[in-house]
């Protein structure tokens, strides 16, 4: 595989240097953009594999960059935000970002996010998520056409809501989905009570997926933000 090309969008030079030094020593190629305008130009002219995007840019909101990129591309976008900006992360995810990193982050965290994103990228390139009739992830199998899900040989006994949740997460494997996104897709609405029910349904679904015979973690909780189905290796 060719080296993965990362577009680093960050106006803060020390952070940008930390990121690019890390990328350089771990066999990634990169291009940099210090603001949103430059980011949009570089994204369209170089077609990067992944965008690392700071949300607080001098010329425009990082979320605007996501909105514009999403009009022509599905490439993975990892947003970088300051700790106080939980609502910003949620907005960014709802606008189509795939994942996020919170400042200050370690080199290990950055590399872990990139590895996970590369896995998602590989999956997006070999399969067409959402169009395949069977989804496989570790021991988990979802047969969309038949409306059944299996863990190894065993069919999972899921309620209609649990099944809907599982399908939604399977179709977006590797991506952090916000509470609002999930409740809108599963219940068709999004009010506070839905998030509480979501938590309950997610807990029962997880109990059915993460059994003693299969210790894989399929569902990751992002407190205050949402959930993600992890791609099991
Ligand atoms: Ca910034």
Descriptors for this entry?
233 residues; 8 helices; globular; binds calcium ion
Summarize it.
The chain has 233 residues and is of the alpha/beta class.
Description:
By secondary structure, this protein is α/β, with parallel strands linked by helices. Helices cover 43% and strands 22% of the residues. The protein is built from 8 helices and 12 strands. The chain has helices at residues 13-25, 36-46, 62-70, 86-94, 107-126, 160-171, 179-186, 192-209, and strands at residues 5-9, 29-33, 50-54, 77-82, 99-103, 134-137, 140-143, 148-151, 154-155, 176-178, 219-222, 226-229. The strands form 3 sheets. Strands 2-1-3-4-5 form a 5-stranded parallel beta sheet, with helices on both faces. Strands 6-7-8-9 form a 4-stranded antiparallel beta sheet, with helices on one face. It has a 3-stranded antiparallel beta sheet with strand order 10-12-11. Strand 6 (134-137) and strand 7 (140-143) form a beta hairpin. The radius of gyration is 18 Å and the shape is globular. The relative contact order is 0.11.
């Amino acid at each position: 595989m060719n080296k993965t090309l990362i577009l680093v969008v960050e106006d803060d030079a020390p952070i940008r240097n930390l990121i690019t030094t890390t990328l350089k020593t771990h066999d990634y190629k990169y291009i940099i953009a210090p603001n949103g305008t430059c980011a949009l130009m570089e994204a369209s002219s170089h077609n990067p594999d992944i965008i690392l995007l700071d949300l607080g840019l001098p010329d425009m909101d990082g979320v605007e960059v996501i909105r514009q990129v999403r009009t022509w591309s599905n490439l993975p976008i990892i947003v970088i935000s300051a700790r106080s900006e939980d609502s910003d992360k949620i907005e960014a995810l709802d606008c189509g970002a795939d994942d996020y990193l919170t400042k200050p982050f370690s080199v290990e965290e950055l590399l872990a996010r990139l590895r996970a994103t590369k896995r998602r990228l590989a999956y997006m390139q070999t399969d067409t998520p959402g169009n395949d009739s069977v989804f496989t992830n570790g021991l988990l199998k979802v047969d969309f056409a038949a409306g059944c899900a299996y863990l190894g040989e065993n069919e999972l006994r899921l309620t209609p809501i649990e099944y809907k949740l599982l399908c939604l997460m399977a179709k977006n494997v590797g991506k952090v989905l916000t509470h609002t996104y999930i409740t809108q897709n599963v219940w068709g609405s999004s009010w506070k009570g839905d998030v509480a029910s979501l938590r309950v349904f997610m807990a029962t679904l997880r109990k059915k997926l993460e059994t003693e015979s299969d210790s894989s973690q399929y569902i990751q909780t992002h407190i205050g933000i949402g959930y993600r189905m992890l791609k099991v290796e």
